[in-house]
Amino acid sequence: MILIDQTKKFKTILITLKFKRVARVDEFAFRTLLPSVLRTKTNLYKNRQQFNEKLENLYGASLTSNTNKIGTLSVIHVQLKLINPSLALDQTLFEEGLAFLKEYMYGHDRFNENDFILEKNMLIEEVVAKENDKTRYALTRLFEEMCPNELYGARVSGTKSQLESLTFKQFKQSYKDFIENDELQIILSGDVDQEEVKLAQVYFPQASFNAMDFLDYETKPILVVKELVEHDKISQTKLNIGYRLPIRQGDSKHVAAVLFNAALGGYVHSRLFLNVREKHSLCYYVSSVYDAYKGIMFIYSGVDAKRLDLAKKVIDEEVRRMSTERISEKELALSKQALINDLKESEDSQGARQNLMYIQALLGKTPTLAERIEKIEQVTPEDLLAVGKLLVKDTVYLLDVER
User: Fold this and answer.
1) Rounded Cα–Cα distance for residues 301 and 312 (Å)
2) How far is the C-alpha of 238 from the C-alpha of 301, rounded, in Å?
3) Is 300:77 a contact under the CB 8 Å cutoff?
4) pLDDT tier, 208 (very low <50, low <70, confident <90, very high otherwise)
5) Are 37 and 111 in contact (CB under 8 A)?
6) DSSP alpha helices (H): ranges in 110-193?
7) How many other β-carbons are positioned within 10 Å of the β-carbon of residue 40?
8) Do domains 2-203 and 226-401 have the same CATH topology?
9) pLDDT digits (tens, 9 = 90+) for 56-85
10) Nearest to 247 by CA among 387, 382, 71
């Protein structure tokens, strides 16, 4: 089955391959490294320059690839964006794009060990560089401390030590396993016709799709809130707080949970932004995020070290108020409008439309934009209060200024 987003809204055709399997921590390093190694050379394109020249010959097509985790799944995304063949007056362009994608993924009778080593070292440097981004690093540490024995706590890009220990032999074996056992889903977006759909099936006959429960149900009882303080040479303290929120994608309270997060810290009208940042000037930044695939919410902020205790107090108070007091109709209306605006804006992105189609296919549900907006409009202040009563603080992580 190929997912098709048939639309004349865009001047481009987006061909996306999504390779999925149940995520395993010991495979994160390989799956993060794979897309860049595939690009170094293929049977047909002997080096990166030839590879890029082919993209240019496809009327400036662009290829992007990355690996991420969706709930309990590890998904490798490969996207080729082509100008609509009718605009290029080249009816062979779509098929050439498919042939190029097939070569990129499967045209590897042999890998070059020097290319593997070079790409691995570059990825190690990137992983180390991410640790120098203290906002990102502090969030990573929050998840590690909050979910130490859960998939969510593992670093999706792999750790430095995992990458260093990955051998060329292991890489080749893992690639063979990837080709044989990952499930491939194809998504086409743009003004595509049935002949082009048939071509995609010809070039990727192994494509299939199975809806599955990919939501992450790993959790733990919270007997005491875990608090951890680490120090680094930084100018502002990173205050991150993780909460368990046992509401996941598809649950009856899911939309209310999304709006709860929007009102708490998801937008510029939110309580954390207005009261913690603007009113009390306690944070350089503050925001909250709700992960509906896992059932957690977290707040991350950059705080003046001298005002840390007050910042924690005010943040706790805003969360308490959201969990015990009815939100105003005005606040809820602002959150609804912000969320609806985001949904409408996503309609203008081929990538966002494809990602939504993929998630809906995994869930086995395909609500229209109008139906999704209607669900948002139906949420009441009492619904948000019910969400707040389920919120449980789990972990407080501080990356503090080194004294």
Assistant:
1) 10
2) 6
3) no
4) confident
5) yes
6) 113-132, 134-146, 160-165, 168-181
7) 19
8) yes
9) 999 999 999 999 999 999 999 999 999 998
10) 387
What architecture (CATH level 2) is domain 2-203?
2-Layer Sandwich (3.30)
Cβ count within 10 A of residue 371: 10
The enclosing H or E element of 73 equals strand 73-83
* Cα separation, 270 vs 53, whole angstroms: 47
Predicted TM-score (pTM) of this structure? 0.92
**For the sheet containing 62-70, what is the strand order?**
2-6, 183-190, 12-22, 73-83, 62-70
3-state secondary structure of 344: helix
Quote the CA–CA distance of 225 and 99 in Å, as a whole number: 54
The CATH homologous superfamily to which domain 226-401 belongs is Metalloenzyme, LuxS/M16 peptidase-like (3.30.830.10)
From first CA to last CA, the distance across the chain in angstroms is 59
Quick one: tokens of 368?
């229209």
Q: Name which of 299, 289, 294, 217 is nearest 258 in CA terms.
A: 289
Residue 260 has a CB neighbour count (10 Å cut-off) of 31
Q: Where are the domains of the chain?
A: 2-203, 226-401
Determine the distance from the C-alpha atom of residue 199 to the mean position of all C-alpha atoms in its chain, rounded to a whole number. Answer: 30
Backbone torsions φ then ψ of 205, nearest 5 degrees: -65, -20
Neighbours of 24 (CB within 10 A): 13
pLDDT-above-70 percentage for the chain? 100
**Region at 42 (left for phi over 0; alpha for psi -120 to 50; beta for the rest):** beta
Q: Contact at 8 Å (CB) between 379 and 256?
A: yes
Task: Please check whether residue 206 is in contact with residue 1, taking contact to mean a CB–CB distance below 8 angstroms.
Answer: no
Is there a contact between 17 and 200 (Cβ–Cβ < 8 Å)? no
